[in-house]
Amino acid sequence: MNRIRFLFVVALIAVASLLSACKYGRFVWYNFADLNDYKIFPTRELKASDDPFVFYHADVETKPTGTTYKDKELSFENFLKETKSVAFLIIRNDSILYERYLDKYEEASIVPSFSMAKSVTSMLVGCAIQDGLIGSVQDPVSRYLPEMAKSGFDKVKIAHVLQMTSGIKFNEGYYNPFGEVASFYYGTDLRKDTQKLKLEAEPGKDFVYASGNTQLLGLILERVLNGKTITEYLDEKIWKPIGMEYDASWSIDRKDDGIEKTFCCLNARARDFAKLGRLYLHKGNWEGQQLVPAEWVEESTKVDSTEGSYKRYQYQWWLPTENGDFAAQGILGQYIYVNPDKNLVMVRLGHKVNANWFRQFVRLAKEY
């Protein structure tokens, strides 16, 4: 009996090892997305600045008022607990008015961005256009990825990809191990998977949120960078210049010669995520240095419904209202919310998404 039990255990270990080596095994083993996911993928490192920018702390903390949640009146701190939040910051005029960490998380805790990275990828596309590496958002994808022309991407403009109106066939079902999003998240050959994308609708007609669009942008960026990695480009153009306080990383698909998961997986701290919001709050200008073209920031955060665009989404940024506010958003309720009228940046990180958050940000912006 002991020998049978031993062989059974060995078999289980072998199966687990086999499963963990492929995307389906990873899906079964790790499913669903989790705040510890930054530990399971290889990464490229981003180093903290030697001269970090540090937000002031307000002399007096300004606590948000309570809110209604699930038919209960809650203090804001209890609302954070109920919604499985791990970090929340409110920053106005470069001063931290409110900062909370929960569930054993603290200021130095790493949290994966998930789809907030899409907004960062958009920043880099704007920089690449400014640098002359990409001609225009009106260029077809096939200009930079000629192998995709035969799949119809000669008719897909970079603008379509930015707006999620490309018409690509992409299953964004996070619970489906055979869908494209599982291949992109858990797979080890993103270049091949991206090049295999097909169209199922005419470009420029309808908004359909699909992470494959942002990975297409990543593949374009990699091609035009001529040997420099996307992480190195981010470090050069944005990360170091805005004075990040902590080391960070970007997850890649495989250890050797991998490519960044540009649709997700930038791993950083709450205060450093807030600096990305501050950069766009000031239209791409950081302490007098124009890092991202101002016209790109404006184009990325305006309401637009032309060519099938959704008026609440522009160039990989969400637009909660039509009043000029905008946000980066991740699947588990990761947010960088920016309200230029109030000179306000808010960051929420957590274990679980909640439909209340955009409403809460708008409410808090009025309150502050």
Automatic annotation (TrEMBL):
InterPro entries: Beta-lactam-related, Beta-lactam/transpept-like, Diverse_Enzym_Activities. Gene3D superfamilies: DD-peptidase/beta-lactamase superfamily. Residues 82-358 form the Beta-lactamase-related domain. It holds the Pfam family Beta-lactamase. It comes from the Bacteria. PANTHER family: BETA-LACTAMASE-RELATED, BLL8153 PROTEIN. This is Beta-lactamase-related domain-containing protein.
